[in-house]
Design goal:
358 residues; 19 strands; alpha/beta; 7-stranded mixed β-sheet; globular
Length: 358
């Protein structure tokens, strides 16, 4: 089987190898043939070590494909079923699940410490317990979520992470109100999905902020009312909000510096929503007086901040209705052999989402 492997944390490129085997199939598991997978910035963060991940590993967590085989005890899936990959499945029994916060369930993270693959040289892990930069992967059955026949694999793959994360941040976590003002800092695939979520909620003004001109142009196509470089944000705040600050500001970069900028751009009593995944040693600071006096809500949003199955269904419904554009998010398509070209496209900001077709 072919897969893209990172041998050591910190390497900039992946090796596409044909001696990788998906392992772990048995009761409660399914074997999935990956047909399409998106390149998410979290994959780059795992490669660089910003996000903790054992190595060697196969990156990728935003995928879709078909079921090849099911283990004993799996009754909800059958060979041939079309599915998307849920990299953070809910167990349904832990305290978070019982509280209705299934997106905070830790059961899925436990899979990250168990190898998903092997090579002649030893075990290989899958990023976030998955590893979709591979032709096949074995995962717990609840990681494979059936999709309707009218949803293409490439669209389903995006719903499996980036779209759900961005839409959910606006709809579930921040609960953007109609007529409000919104700023989105960082306009890659997730940031664009935040913009689409804010537009679907009825935001009156959406300011998109990104240093890459192509991403600013894309933000306007997806619903932003203006798009500007970071050094123009202060002037936009003065013009759009009379200096008060935006009702909602979304940080979709994962850096303390941009989080601080986002905090300062949020009005008193407004909402700062942290969507970007950052490093363990990158500290975001506010002083105790401003925290008390400004009464700004600081809301982190993990995987869209809500029940992911409901979020998937909502994304599909909005896409079918033409309320959100998912096809337009895919700016590049490559085969697995060209995975390193896709990494460069992500690093330079020339892509929103690159679809790897397997």
């Amino acid at each position: 089987m072919r897969a893209a492997v990172q041998h050591e944390t910190g390497q900039d490129t992946l090796d596409v190898l044909d001696d990788v085997e998906a392992v772990g199939f048995g009761p409660g598991k399914v074997r999935m043939r990956v047909r399409a997978t998106g390149l998410c910035h979290s994959d780059l963060s795992a490669m660089s070590g910003v996000l903790p991940q054992p190595a060697p590993f196969v990156p990728g967590h935003e995928g879709a494909g078909e079921i090849l085989d099911v283990g004993d005890g799996v009754t909800a899936l059958s060979p041939g079923d079309r599915v998307l990959m849920c990299w953070l499945p809910a167990c349904g029994t832990c305290p978070s699940c019982k509280r209705g916060q299934s997106h905070l369930c830790l059961a899925g993270f436990m899979n990250a410490g168990t190898p998903n693959f092997k090579r002649p040289g030893g075990d290989v892990f899958g990023f976030a317990g998955t590893g979709t930069f591979a032709e096949e992967v074995v995962v717990p059955a609840h990681c494979a979520v059936p999709i309707p026949d009218d949803v293409p694999y490439d669209i389903a793959a995006l719903i499996g992470c980036g779209v759900t994360t961005g839409l959910g941040a606006a709809v579930n976590t921040a609960k953007v109100e109609a007529g409000s003002s919104v700023a989105v800092i960082g306009c890659g695939g997730v940031g664009i999905s935040v913009i689409q979520g804010a537009r679907a909620c009825g935001a009156a003004h959406i300011t998109a902020v990104d240093p890459v001109p192509a991403r600013r142009e894309a933000a306007l196509r997806f619903g932003a009312t203006e798009a500007l470089a970071p050094d123009a944000l202060a002037d936009a705040k003065a013009k759009v909000t009379s200096g008060e600050g935006y009702d909602y500001v979304f940080e979709v970069v994962g850096k303390s510096a941009t989080a601080r900028t986002a905090y300062e751009t949020t009005r008193r009593g407004g909402t700062l929503c942290i969507v970007g995944a950052g490093a363990l040693d990158d500290m975001f600071q506010v002083n105790m007086f401003e925290l008390f006096f400004d009464e700004k809500r600081i809301l982190p949003s993990l995987y869209g901040g809500g029940d992911v199955l409901r979020s998937y269904a909502r994304a599909i419904a909005l896409w079918r209705a033409g309320r959100i554009d998912l096809e337009g998010l895919i700016t590049h398509r490559v085969r697995l052999d060209d995975i390193n070209d896709a990494l460069d496209q992500m690093r330079t900001g020339t892509s929103l989402r690159t679809c790897i077709e397997l």
